[in-house]
Write a structure and sequence with these properties.
This protein is an alpha/beta fold and 254 residues long. It folds into two domains: 46 residues, no CATH class; 199 residues, Rossmann fold (3-Layer(aba) Sandwich). The protein contains ten helices and seven strands. The strands form two sheets. It has a five-stranded parallel sheet, sandwiched between helices. A two-stranded antiparallel sheet has the order 4-5. Strand 6, helix 10 and strand 7 form a beta-alpha-beta unit. Bound molecules: zinc ion (ZN) (2 copies).
């Protein structure tokens, strides 16, 4: 073994001792040989992409053998102004842990590796061509103070940088503070977020006639994204597409 290589191994070993980089998903040390130091390979291998066949519009998994069309039954919940929804993975144990780390445990840097997977999402050609500006789902002022950042804005910035887009977190604001959505049923979620978002006065000119790409960490029932899209469409946007890191597995028997 060459002196240089031994020195490199020694250095990597010392770096591991000093920084002890652990995976944001599972907490085990990430070897220095891995390219991504924030999320280990095992966690990425456990993250399951939304399984095909999928709806071409809302990305809901369909029953095997079901014909893949431009719309599905779940699409009824998605307003016409939303062109497509795309999510990189199903929200399961590992992806939930990653989102949790980003959202609640202060791992803001995890936005990079997560957005890297979102950047690989297949969007229809017209969306690739038209949707050049990302808009993150805004967070409330209270949560911003508490966390110090909006995880959707971090994802949008990283996703935009990786796909040659711009990110404009100032295009949408959260008006009134909404209670956390976690414990609510779908209908309650919709009522909870309806009217919670708005395009600030003076920004409507920037979105008139545009196809915007809304970015969030998770698509649960779609209530939040739909409320955001409605605000953008009401303010003059022509159409909205949605990109999220993960999505809850919807009922397959629709
Ligand atoms: Zn891991
Ligand atoms: Zn659909």
């Amino acid at each position: 073994m060459s002196v240089r290589r031994r020195a490199a191994e020694l250095r990597d070993g010392l770096l591991d001792l000093v920084f002890a980089p652990v995976c944001a998903g599972c907490g085990t040390p990430v070897p220095t040989t891995e390219e991504e130091r924030l999320v280990c390979r095992t966690c990425w291998s456990r993250a399951r992409p939304v399984p095909a066949p999928r709806c071409g519009r809302c990305w809901a998994p369909l029953l095997p053998g079901r014909e893949v069309g431009p719309r599905c039954a779940a699409c009824e919940e998605v307003p016409a102004g939303i062109r497509v929804v795309r999510s990189a993975f199903l929200l399961e144990a590992t992806t939930r842990a990653l989102v949790h780390a980003l959202k609640y445990r202060g791992w803001s840097a995890v936005a990079g590796p997560l957005a890297r997977r979102m950047a690989e999402l297949p969007f229809p050609e017209d969306v690739e061509e038209e949707a050049r500006v990302c808009v993150p789902v805004p967070t409330s002022a209270a949560r911003m103070r508490e966390r110090g950042y909006n995880q959707a804005a971090l994802l949008a910035a990283e996703f935009a940088a990786r796909t040659g887009r711009a990110s404009d977190p100032g295009l949408l604001v959260r008006g009134r503070s909404t209670d956390t959505q976690t414990a609510l049923h779908p209908a309650e979620r919709r009522a909870n977020v309806a009217g919670a978002f708005a395009v600030p006065a003076g920004r409507a000119d920037s979105i008139r006639g545009e196809h915007l790409l809304l970015v969030d960490d998770v698509w649960t029932t779609g209530a939040t994204a739909v409320a955001c899209a409605r605000a953008l469409l009401d303010a003059g946007a022509r159409v909205v597409s949605v990109a999220t890191f993960a999505r809850v597995h919807p009922e397959l028997d629709r």
